[in-house]
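Reply to dn_fold:

You asked what the input looked like. This is it:
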Amino acid sequence: MLARKSIIPEEFGLPGLVSRIPRKPVFRDRVNKARFIAKNGSCNLAHKNIREQGRFLQDVFTTLVDLRWRFTLVIFTTTFVSSWLLFAMSWWLVAFAHGDLNPRREGNTSCVTDVKSFTSAFLFSIEVQVTIGFGGRMITEECPAAITVLIMQNIVGLIINAVMLGCIFMKTAQSNRRAETLIFSRHAVIAVRNNRLCFMIRIGDLRKSMIIGATIRLQVVRKTTTPEGEVIPIHQIDVQTESAVASNNLFLLAPLIICHVIDKNSPMYDLSAMELQCSDLEVIAILEGVVETTGITTQARTSYVSEEIQWGHRFVPIVTEEEGVYSVDYSKFGNTVKVTTPHCSARELDEKPSILIQTLQKSELSHQNSLRKRNSMRRNNSMRKCASSGSLRRNNSGLNSPKVQFFSPVEGGQSLNAVT
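and this is what came back:
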């Protein structure tokens, strides 16, 4: 009996077969890192250990606008009530110095009529600053100090009204409210367009009022190390887009696909499909423009990390013409389909253009094979239908009633005629 080694050659054994299988490069697992820009556009950045806090008080108006609504409303109410109380104390002091608070005082005219207590002085302060003027209390010519307090309260009241109402108006008409209707696709895609590997996103505007002078900017944020050993934790690299090359502005009437060609100047030039999933890459998209109705500049932001970049996908069309009108189906805004795309990097495609040709040829062959399979399945189904219909016809013919023959005797002979 021969040994197993003489029956099966070594090159066809399990060790030999395993050694000839091409191994994929092994990459370390990607460490979860914080996003620099959230999907809603907010900056994921915390400011700590700020020693010069007084700089915020130098720009009080911007500080009030940047505060949250609950803090703004508290400051708004506190400012008005404090001013009313402050000038109520001033009116009470004027009345006290003139002796108007003495109930036994008779004869002399009061500085302010019907101000006999701090409560009445507070009510008069509100009437003066808000210019209500109910008519029960009014200032007289008796006291110059009262006239001075009246002028000061009017000036201070106008300043408080201007600042607070302006703050409320600016918070109501902030540009980020308009940015809520500027949308980005949930995922970014990488596919071949015009024989070049491209990074693409889709942007759109939900409102009919347009964004004038809209511009789009793409930036890649990643951690880099310089040749000198300096570590830059947030290195921002500008990425060129086709829209920026053609013109400076976007006509954002319908959703647009923003395309970045991955060329030699792109930071994604050396990334393949597998390397992209293991990288700490983050692409930031910034859309800026002027609101047509208000003239306020607005900005919408989002970002895409490596898990949100789909390699070998393409956005589906969402603009169709229906009865002479272009219709946009926003339910398919972020939908993508798989397309044939090489998994190598753009550098490898430039060095070996045959990779793209071979990939397209394989895709064409697989497409033809699928069409052949579909055609063969259709022919088989049609033949089965024909065979089943023929058998049904034969069965139906067997179920038909047989011919009945009637025989009648004929005169002068023994022959019988069959009548059906």
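The chain has three domains: 59-172, 178-338, 353-420.
Hope that clears it up.
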